[in-house]
Specification:
The chain is an alpha/beta fold. It contains 14 helices and nine strands. Bound molecules: calcium ion (CA).
Length: 345
């Protein structure tokens, strides 16, 4: 009996040794081969967010990137509904959506998208399919960030912030929760590869801003939190308004380019609203930089950013710095950028 017991114990020991060895042989999890992207959008400030989204859906459909989720950083269920119908229209009905509930609501530049979200066909059915009927069930934007980052490979996530920095600020000030034992800052430090932020009025030769850009003015405290808490180890690429300013997609051209249907969310926006408001293709500069050739949009040398009491930022050149900003191109460059946006329709 004793012998049998010893034999069983030995067998167990051998088995556990074997499984330890198997554990050691297990390959390291592979880094994803394509960019893993979270879009953080104010969606109803101007129409350029819609084109940034359209580009991302197209790249994702071609397998060139993976969309992890959409964060709607402007408050309001209608804005979440527009993100939802965009996800559905472009073939991503399961893409998670998070909604800001402690940020900016109706400030200047706000487009009320209710007629798009509620548009119906002649039978009274919604013109654009949606996944959700009740947007109160969506997680807060910063909670979605925490879920997505907790599940991502280390150093793998690219964030594209084409809107107001309130949700990122809420992420950065968040504490450990059921999704991760890490604070928001630690989650960003560990999981995020790069942040793109459509912001600033920095231009070559202007190392100090002349005025804070729109996205930061929408929530100055959040802008300060982002710049002060963002980890030095994680790269940031700013897209100053001077870059997108050069790329104009006129409302007439948008409508005539989408000539095969009227049932298209961007075309519906252009058919129902006066979009001739001086807006330019600012936000698409983020996906274009990430997904197209490296030399498509020139970048400044590396540096650091400091933020003053007036939330204007100064750029201090530093080869070890984690901030760079995009540089505007010439007329031929602007045409090339516009063509890439038009090709995504
Ligand atoms: Ca925007």
């Amino acid at each position: 009996m004793k012998h049998t017991k010893n034999f069983i114990l030995l067998a167990f020991a051998a088995l556990s040794l074997f499984s330890c060895e198997r554990e050691n042989l297990k390959p390291e999890p592979q880094q994803p081969s394509v960019p893993q992207i979270i879009l953080d959008t104010d969606i109803a400030s101007s129409t350029d967010d819609l084109f940034a989204m359209q580009l991302l859906y197209r790249y994702a459909s071609q397998g060139r990137c993976n969309l992890l989720g959409v964060v709607v950083d402007r408050m309001g269920d209608t804005n979440a509904a527009v993100a939802d119908l965009m996800n559905n229209y472009y073939g991503f009905p399961s893409l998670p959506i998070g909604l800001e509930r402690n940020g900016t609501y109706e400030r200047f530049g706000y487009i009320n998208y209710t007629p798009i979200a509620q548009a119906t066909d002649t039978n009274g059915n919604l013109l654009f399919a949606r996944t959700y009927s009740d947007y109160s069930s969506l997680p807060d934007g910063y909670i979605l960030y925490r879920q997505l980052l907790a599940n991502a490979y280390d150093g793998s996530v690219t964030i594209m912030l084409t809107g107001i920095p309130s949700t990122i600020a809420n992420l950065l000030t968040s504490d450990a929760d059921q999704y991760s034992p890490l604070t928001g800052v630690e989650l960003v430090r560990r999981k995020v590869k790069r942040l793109y932020f459509m912001a600033t009025k920095l231009e070559p030769g202007y190392e100090q801003e002349v005025s804070a850009g729109y996205n930061r003015m929408m929530h100055p405290e959040a802008a300060r939190t982002l710049i002060q808490l963002w980890p030095d180890e994680v790269d940031v690429i700013l897209s100053p308004s001077a870059v997108g300013n050069l790329v104009e997609y006129t409302p007439e051209q948008v409508i005539s380019d989408i000539d095969w249907t009227d049932i298209h969310p961007i075309k519906q926006v252009y058919m129902r609203y006066d979009c001739n408001t001086g807006q330019r293709m600012w936000d698409p500069m983020l996906p274009l930089q990430e997904m197209e050739d490296d030399d498509l949009i020139a970048l400044s040398p590396r540096g650091r950013i400091s933020i003053g009491a007036d939330i204007k930022v100064s750029f201090i050149a530093d080869p070890e710095g984690n901030f760079r900003y995009q540089m505007p191109g010439d007329e031929a460059w602007a045409q090339r950028m516009l063509n890439l946006i038009r090709a995504s329709n």
